[in-house]
Amino acid sequence: MTPLILFYGYAAVLLLAATGVIASRNPVYSVLFLVLAFVTSAFLWLLLEAEFLAIVLVLVYVGAVMVLFLFVVMMLDVDQARLRAGFTKYAPLAGLLAIAVAGELIAVLWLKTSDLPITANQPPRDADYSNTRALGEVLYTDHVYAFELAAFLLLLAIVAAIVLTMRRRPGLKAQDIARQVAVRRDDRVRLVQMEAERDQ
Questions:
Q1: Whose CA is closest to 146, among 134, 133, 138?
Q2: DSSP label at 86?
Q3: Which of 44, 97, 183, 185 has its CA 20 to 30 A from that of 140?
Q4: pLDDT tens digits, residue range 30-56?
Q5: 38 with 66: CB under 8 angstroms?
Q6: Do 162 and 156 meet the contact criterion of CB atoms below 8 Å apart?
Q7: How do the domains of the chain map onto residue ranges?
Q8: Which H or E run contains 106?
Q9: Which class is domain 1-79?
Q10: Residue 64, SS3?
Q11: Is 149 left (phi over 0), alpha (psi -120 to 50) or beta?
């Protein structure tokens, strides 16, 4: 009974945080609501005995990605009036997405109330069961090639982002190392001889 109460409590907090992300007019508040949503999702993962996924969600998303989002939002000069003016333009698409999400939620609730074998409750794990070890055994044995391919694609994405950032753009100031090394003293320094002056 207690896990069910905790689940509904965390689910309510998660729904309120997700609503705050899209309803807040201040982008910094939206980011903070998103941090709360990620932390609450991690608690839900803990209730499902998926400790590794919960820790990864907190460390990666809250500790790295969301902090980066917060810095970007705080450093950007966001025009609030322009954002609010274009909100109605995306309202039809947002309505279609909301209907799709509601349909998926209804399908899950219907599936939960049916008598299909997939809806049977799983027995609790033993005390010495390690979710991290089980995930590692599957990831580095059966799916090791897919894991390495994903790592290679992430590396390729990082290199592509760096190349796109370092490309030449008009008005961009960049160093010319060869020109700096080849400079001579006569090009930089001009010696001027002046008569010595004596105070009267």
A1: 138
A2: T
A3: 44
A4: 888 888 888 899 888 888 878 888 888
A5: yes
A6: no
A7: 1-79, 127-166
A8: helix 91-113
A9: mainly alpha
A10: helix
A11: alpha
